[in-house]
Design a protein that fits this description.
The complex is a heterotrimer of chains A (about 600), B (about 300) and C (about 375).
Chain A lengths: L2 E9 L2 H5 L4 H24 L3 E4 L15 E6 L4 H26 L9 H10 L2 E9 L5 H15 L36 H5 L10 H8 L9 H5 L1 H10 L1 H16 L28 H8 L4 H19 L5 E9 L2 H8 L3 H26 L2 E7 L2 E7 H23 L9 E9 L4 H16 L5 E7 L5 E7 L4 H13 L5 H12 L11 H17 L25 H24 L12
Parallel strand pairs in A: 8-9
Antiparallel strand pairs in A: 1-3, 1-4, 2-3, 5-7, 5-8, 6-7, 9-10
Helix pairs in contact in A: 2-3, 2-7, 3-4, 3-7, 9-10, 10-12, 11-12, 14-15, 17-20, 18-19, 18-20
Chain B lengths: L3 E9 L15 E2 L11 E2 L1 H11 L5 H8 L22 E3 L2 E9 L5 E5 L1 H11 L16 E4 L6 E2 L4 E4 L2 E7 L1 H11 L6 H7 E4 L1 H10 L2 E8 L6 E11 L5 E8 L11 H8 L4 E4 L10 E6 L10
Parallel strand pairs in B: 2-13, 6-11, 7-10
Antiparallel strand pairs in B: 1-14, 1-16, 3-5, 4-14, 5-6, 5-14, 7-11, 8-9, 9-10, 12-13, 15-16
Chain C lengths: L1 E9 L17 E2 L8 H20 L6 H8 L3 E11 L9 E4 L4 E4 L2 E4 L2 E2 L5 E3 L5 H4 L3 E2 L6 E2 L4 E3 H8 L14 E9 L6 E12 L7 E11 L11 E3 L4 E7 L17 E6 L14 E6 L2 E6 L8 E7 L4 E3 L2 E2 L4 E2 L3 E3 L5 E6 L27 E6 L7
Parallel strand pairs in C: 2-13
Antiparallel strand pairs in C: 1-14, 1-16, 3-4, 3-14, 4-11, 5-6, 5-10, 7-9, 12-13, 15-16, 17-25, 17-26, 18-19, 19-20, 20-25, 21-24, 22-23
Classes of the chains: A alpha+beta (about 600), B alpha+beta (about 300), C mainly beta (about 375).
Protein name (chain C): CRISPR-associated protein Crm3
Organism (chain C): Cystobacter ferrugineus
Pfam families (chain A): Cas10-Cmr2_palm2, Cmr2_N
Chain lengths: ~600, ~300, ~375
């Protein structure tokens, strides 16, 4: 009797997660998807399907995350029945969950919108499945290939039906712009409106409502709190009295309902300042507290009395945060290469990936000041404060490498690598935009040849900087060296600018040059001259290209040399931002030029 | 009644930076540029805000008809429609660079433009009398000048801009352009005529990147009197004498009891040269500019 | 009825806000459509017409009904995306098309997705639907596909309709810029703390001195010539779009279009609104060759047809604003532009008049420019090799 290999995918993933205004929308949206995948997998197991991907399933705790693509073996029975049961389990769970929240928060919703809400919940899930029969272990790889091809082809038709239960004349959700708002009309003051931080002009559909109110307020760490974690840590170390006074006042405001205390949830670093740290940003404590309807004088008094003393001692915080996105390279190839060794080999790999996901959480949240949003298989998404971001990326890379090496030992299959992107944006940027930055950074990290690291920053001046290198080139060390050059004040920013200007005065990278060698000589001589020149009044000696990380001699063509120098300038600008992101007490020397 | 447009000239009297304000975490404050072409521009919304202030002298009703009533509360809270609320009849388009002052070895500075910049301006100026012809694109590097340009080095017959040396060709259309632009600011006619230069587009794109003004700025901490930590940045601006072209558009007034046709709205907005202060406070002597229109018949209201 | 043909050239870029509104983050942030939906353009043209019509009548504040009545005759016909070098007058070679869903870029080459029956491997979707699962599926060539570029040139598209893969993977759309604005306090002339607005702007001028524009055919009641008479306020914050008259030839079918084909491939040039969502109007569930299927008649197509395959991405959710009532309209779920449908005739005969389907209208809401199709050839027996 033949078995079937059944492949299932649940969606939407990226779009659904990115539809987030508050931090909690993001965390909870990702949590919802993970739970739905878990419910689908459990339903399949219920019908005696054997789980291959993911191989392990914790019935109680779907964290870190259950991937949205499931591979199971159906040894007896109808694969269609299994697939259908998985789909319905996920769909029913979402509808039930959403309506539970609805009932719990009747104060927030419009009773007339019940049908609309039910339709929104019932139609979110996108489910696709494909299955293929096989009888012997030798057939397993071919069956997997057929199922994968069929699933990919099937997903090219995203069937949908029109909305049937809209009321019309209603604003659309601020999160997705498509679904009608289900919030009640009229005055929004006090109570749950404030507890769940539903803004005055904000609109939420049933899914948005679930994201916003599904968890407990305070269960999620606001992005500004992550971005400013190094700052609050320094405050705790050097100005404990001032920070404690501020925290006491926040606590008091919290008791009156103006601020929500953040639950650290095992992340020790959060306890340094367990509140939304945007109250530390000049110009924001006012706006933020006013949004919570605190009167202006009191908001200003709060800032003057409790925040300003810290700012005087430590300077203003650097309000940027890194969105980290990592993804295993060529995982599809690895799976196919492993297929001839059967489903057991796949299960071993799957368990290793689950282990890595747990490790990823530890690296982000315990080893560094960050929060993991999602870690399903080889996919990692999280936020981390800028001063910790580089090391965090490097540790993730290492953890992935060793997990894969162990799982694939003796199989003859080369272990896959991990590409990691860091997208840096302002802490008040919309979460969807921060995610986009992270994903762009990941795309840049992957490049054509994978195994890469990339750092991409979008500053509020609308300037963008980006730099990419492959892991074997030690990108983190290279950036750290650049940061320390800037911190020691040895490389003035004006020189970086001079180098950029110099490049613009040279033929372009794509220019067809007859005398490449002489142009290359000219450029490197000029660079040496710019670096060696000593600034007036400086006791320092000049610098050489290799001291600043320029490897001019390794570049074979004009295009390579040009690209190398350009990337160097970009790296130096990024290093400057990283240097400034490190909080310092007053009196410590900065890297100003 | 549909919308009417009228072009305006913006002349920088001090360095211009219409940016995003300053905040911590800024390393450099670039000027606003079109992303694909790098052409500097000043957003119409910034200009509209300062023009509104400059036209405070209009009768209250007309002022509101032009610019719309002021919102009583800023931010999301103020974003509610209220009785008597209406849109302003005036739409202010972005001002785009048409000529950039560039240091010249001879004659201190030249006002440099390019076929692309002039072509974009020509579209805005369409409908005015005597708009010069399109200037053909040429292979560079080359500078085209009118007769009697004071920035051409006489003994070399060349133009030395920043550190570029450019071959020079005389072309009557260049002078025509200078004269035409100067019709909006007659007192500057001589300056424009003597210094107007049209370089090829590639040379222009190099100048767009290298010939803007970049100043290193610091913020002084008011409590310590020293440079605030992390508060050092490079601010880019368009140098004084920069010329930009934009358009104003208007429909009829939407304000009850203040009937104004589109032409009336434009006449009031551009009645006389407006002195504007762009980009916040004038304490550092920046952002002074004037806005002027071309005189004479343009496409007036057609019914 | 009169037909005006013109190109709209957004002077300061395009900013067509989607349904999310301004308040999508702690600081103001709006999101724009990747390319303006035809309905937005019709809305802008109705506004121009309505203002003029009511002005002439001297009515100051029209009622919702008056507005509706005065402007409902203004409808959008064929709509084109255009890109030209600055100095050239618009011509068919400047037309840009949405990337067809049956194209895939793998290993640097554009590959054709060719649907075939695959009875041996079964599938299941979000809903139980045996006719849908019985549709043919394309087999993708091996290798990781690159995300598609949004636009194709006229040349690429015409070849594609004939069954030839282009050498270019397509054209990136207009450059996007995020403008950051501060709110100035009028009294102090300083930035309001914490108040930032960000808006996404599509730039119409690219780095190669080519500009993007929209080509429109607009019918309107009355004799008024020269419509739209001047610039049009388009998208959020009433950005100016200049109008330039164009020739009727700009909208006509290319000569090289195939006319006969054993199968028919229809690619959506603009989003389409169908009664049942992704499934084109005019088809009903029946049996064919012993399997469930969708069969029926299509506007302008010879004979009864059977739907063989459909390549459709997620719906485009269109949320428009009812100007007259000052309220949002219900959301419509549209089949996105580029979606591709494959048909055969039930009687097995070839299609012989493909050319007549050039930019024909399909589905509902034609007056908003929705549902325009591009006819392509298809050989149902061809397989990817």
């Amino acid at each position: 009797m033949s078995s079937h290999l059944l492949l299932m995918s649940l969606g939407p993933v990226q779009d659904f997660i990115a539809q987030a205004r508050r931090t909690r929308d993001l965390w909870f949206g990702s949590h919802v998807l993970s739970v739905l995948s878990q419910k689908a997998a459990l339903a399949a197991r219920e019908l005696r399907a054997e789980l291959v991907f993911p191989a392990l399933l914790d019935e109680k705790d779907p964290s870190p995350s259950v991937p949205n693509k499931l591979l199971v073996l159906v040894r007896e029975g109808e694969p269609r029945t299994v697939a259908r049961a998985a789909r319905e389990a996920a769909r029913a769970h979402l509808l039930h969950w959403g309506m539970e929240v609805w009932e719990k928060h009747r104060q927030l919703v419009d009773d007339q919108a019940r049908k609309t809400a039910e339709e929104q919940l019932d139609t979110l899930l996108e489910f696709h499945a494909a299955w293929s029969a096989f009888s012997t272990a030798e057939d397993y790889p071919e069956a997997l290939r057929r199922a994968e091809d069929a699933l990919a082809a099937r997903r090219r038709l995203r069937a949908f039906t029109p909305w049937a239960h809209q009321r019309g004349g209603i604003h659309k959700s601020s999160l997705d712009g498509a679904r009608e708002s289900v919030l009640g009309q009229g005055e929004r003051r006090g109570g749950k409106w404030e507890r769940f931080r539903i803004g005055r002009r904000e609109q939420l559909d049933a899914l948005g409502l679930l994201k916003r109110t599904g968890g407990e307020p305070g269960q999620f760490v606001p992005v500004p709190t992550i971005g400013l974690a190094a700052y609050t840590a320094l405050a705790k170390e050097t100005r404990p009295a001032e920070l404690a006074a501020l925290a006491r006042e926040c606590e008091a405001l919290g008791r009156e309902g103006w601020l929500t205390r953040v639950d650290a949830g095992g992340k020790a670093w959060v306890d340094d300042f367990p509140f939304d740290a945007q109250v530390l940003l000049p110009g924001r404590w006012n706006t933020h507290l006013k949004e919570q309807c605190l009167d202006r004088e009191r908001a200003e008094r709060f800032g003057d009395t409790f925040v300003r003393p810290l700012l005087r001692a430590l300077g203003e915080p650097f309000p940027y945060v890194a969105c980290l996105v990592a993804d295993g390279d060529r995982m599809g190839e690895t799976l196919r290469a492993l297929a001839p060794r059967g489903s057991a080999a796949h299960q071993t790999l799957s368990r290793a990936l689950s282990g890595f996901a747990t490790e990823a959480r530890r690296i982000l949240q315990q080893r560094h000041r960050g929060v993991l949003v999602y870690a399903g298989g080889d996919d990692v998404l999280g936020f981390v404060c800028l001063p910790d971001a580089l090391r965090c990326a490097a540790e993730l890379y290492q953890a992935f490498a060793s997990a894969m090496k162990e799982a694939l030992a003796g199989s003859g299959v080369p272990p896959p690598t991990l590409s990691v992107g860091l997208g840096v944006g302002h802490v008040l940027e919309s979460l969807g935009d921060l995610l986009t930055l992270g994903r762009q950074a990941e795309g840049l990290a992957k490049g054509e040849d994978r195994d890469g690291f990339a750092l991409l920053m979008r500053l509020h001046s609308s300037r963008e900087y980006k730099w990419r290198a492959r892991w074997p080139e030690h990108p983190v060390e290279a950036l750290e060296a650049a940061v320390s050059l800037r911190e020691q004040g040895r490389l003035p920013l004006t020189k970086v600018r001079e180098v950029r200007t110099l490049l613009r005065r040279m033929p372009s990278r794509r220019a067809a040059l007859e005398d490449e060698a002489s142009w290359a000589r000219l450029l490197s001589n000029e660079l040496q001259r710019v670096l060696a020149r000593v600034e007036l009044g400086s006791a320092e000696a000049g610098l050489t290209p290799s001291e600043v990380g320029l490897r001019l001699e390794n570049q074979r063509t004009w295009a390579e040399l040009h690209a190398h120098v350009e990337a160097w300038a970009e790296r130096m600008s990024l290093a400057e931002v990283l240097a400034r992101a490190k909080p310092r007490s007053r009196g410590a020397t900065g890297g100003e030029s | 009644m549909s919308m009417e447009t009228r072009p305006y000239l913006l002349h920088a009297l001090s360095p211009l930076h219409a940016g995003t304000g300053r905040s911590v975490g800024i390393i450099d404050l670039p000027i606003a540029r079109l992303r694909a072409t790098n052409i500097p521009f000043i957003p119409g919304s910034s200009i509209k805000g300062v023009l509104r202030e400059a036209r405070r002298g209009l009768p209250e009703g007309e002022w509101e008809a032009l610019f719309g009533p002021l919102r009583k509360v800023s931010g999301a809270e103020g974003d509610e429609a209220w009785e008597g609320d209406h849109a302003g009849a005036l739409v202010v388009g972005d001002a785009r660079l048409v000529a950039l002052p560039v240091r010249s070895f001879v004659g201190t500075f030249a006002l440099v433009s390019s076929p692309l910049l002039l072509e974009l301006a020509r579209r805005d100026l369409k409908g005015l009398e005597g708009v010069p012809e399109r200037l053909k694109r040429v292979e560079g590097p080359l500078a085209r000048v009118g007769k009697g340009n004071v920035t051409v080095a006489p003994e070399h017959g060349k133009l030395f801009l920043e550190d570029l040396d450019l071959d020079v060709q005389e072309e009557p259309a260049v002078e025509a352009w200078a004269r035409f632009l100067a019709r909006a600011l007659p007192e500057e006619e001589e300056l424009m005529r003597e210094r107007f230069v049209v370089v090829d587009d590639e040379t222009m794109s190099f100048l767009l990147e290298t010939a803007t003004q970049v100043d290193t700025r610091v913020r002084i901490d008011s409590t310590t009197g020293s440079v605030a930590e992390g508060a050092l940045w490079q601010e880019e601006s368009l140098p004084a004498e920069t010329l930009l072209v934009g358009v104003l558009a208007a429909g009829p007034s939407l304000r009850q009891k203040t009937p104004l046709g589109a032409g009336d709205v434009l006449n009031r907005a551009l009645r006389e040269t407006a002195w504007l202060q762009l980009g916040g406070k004038a304490t550092v002597g920046r952002g002074r500019c004037r806005m002027a229109a071309w005189p004479g018949p343009s496409k007036e209201s057609r019914r | 009825m009169n037909t005006a043909r013109f190109a709209l050239l957004p002077r300061d870029g395009l900013f067509c806000k989607d349904g999310r509104g301004w308040y999508t983050s702690d600081v103001g942030r709006s999101h724009s459509y990747a390319w303006p939906p035809p309905s937005t353009l019709r809305g802008a043209l109705r506004a121009v017409w309505g203002q003029r019509a009511l002005q002439v009548r001297g009515a100051r504040a029209p009622s919702a009904e008056e507005w509706e009545q005065a402007t409902q005759g203004v409808s959008l016909g064929r709509m084109l995306s255009l890109r030209r070098p600055l100095e050239e007058p618009f011509a068919p070679r400047h037309r840009m098309w949405p990337t067809p869903a049956d194209a895939l870029v793998v290993g640097g080459r554009v590959r054709r997705l060719l649907p075939r029956p695959h009875p041996e491997v079964h599938t299941l979707g979000t809903e139980d639907d045996d006719a849908l699962e019985a549709l043919w599926r394309p087999m993708a060539p091996a290798g990781k596909p690159k995300p598609p570029l949004p636009f194709w040139t006229e040349e690429s598209l015409v070849g594609w309709l004939r069954g030839q893969a282009p050498s270019s993977p397509g054209v990136t759309g207009p450059e996007r810029r995020v403008d950051v604005r501060v709110t100035l306090n009028a009294a102090s002339q300083t930035a309001e703390p914490g108040m930032l607005y960000q808006a996404e702007v599509l730039e119409m001028l690219d780095g190669e001195e080519r500009e993007w524009a929209l080509g429109l055919e607009c019918t309107h009641p009355g004799e008024a010539s020269g419509f739209p008479w001047g610039p049009v306020g388009l998208g959020g914050k009433r950005r100016l779009a200049l109008a330039e008259p164009v020739q009727a030839e700009l909208f006509t079918a290319p000569r090289e279009l195939p006319d006969r084909s054993p199968g028919l491939r229809l690619i959506l040039a603009t989003p389409a609104h169908f009664r049942r969502g992704w499934l084109p109007d005019g088809l009903e569930r029946e049996e064919h060759e012993g399997r469930p299927c969708w069969m029926g008649e299509l506007p302008g197509v010879e004979g009864r047809v059977v739907l063989r395959a459909a390549l459709v991405n997620r719906p485009m959710e269109l949320s428009t604003w009812d100007m007259a009532r000052g309220k949002p309209r219900p959301t419509r779920r549209l089949v996105p532009a580029g979606s591709t449908y494959f048909f055969e005739r039930v009687d097995g005969r070839p299609f012989t008049a493909l050319k007549t389907l050039w930019l024909a209208a399909w589905g509902s809401d034609h007056e908003e420019g929705l549902g325009r199709v591009l006819p392509g050839s298809w050989n149902p027996n061809e397989e990817d090799t």
